[in-house]
Design a protein that fits this description.
Layout: H1 5-22, H2 34-48, E1 51-53, H3 56-60, H4 66-81, E2 85-88, E3 95-98, H5 100-116
Antiparallel strand pairs: 1-3, 2-3
Helix pairs in contact: 1-2, 1-5
Length: about 120
């Protein structure tokens, strides 16, 4: 199976986001806005179950144009069809989870990028 650069980026970022969020503390910080805390805590709890929200603008560092959004949506759908991701949502997937094979591929991608850096 051959993955595009976008699909590789998506798999690696889902794994990195999951690990980053799951390691955070879900404890309220004094002075923290309660609504922000509630969203952060839900994201942490979801990450500990393996579910990560798709954040396109955070992934690439800028807002996403409609054509880019469509290409990324196709990449997500292809990874779901290849059984590397599990999508959550009806037709527009808002969150994803790595399957076992998807996680292995993501770890391989990350280790290969670290070795080349």
């Amino acid at each position: 199976m051959t993955l595009t650069d976008l699909e590789k980026l998506l798999l690696a970022s889902v794994l990195a986001d999951r690990d980053r969020l799951a390691s955070q503390s879900p404890i309220w910080d004094r002075g923290e806005d309660r609504h922000l805390f509630a969203r952060r805590r839900c994201a942490i709890e979801d990450a500990r179950r393996g579910i990560v929200a798709i954040d396109w603008s955070g992934l690439i560092g800028h807002s996403v144009a409609p054509a880019e959004r469509q290409a990324r949506s196709r990449a997500v759908r292809r990874l779901i069809a290849l059984e590397l991701l599990i999508g959550y949502g009806h037709s527009n997937f808002k969150a994803v989870e790595l399957t076992e094979s998807g996680e292995q591929i993501a770890k391989t991608i990350i280790s290969a990028s670290e070795a080349s850096a």
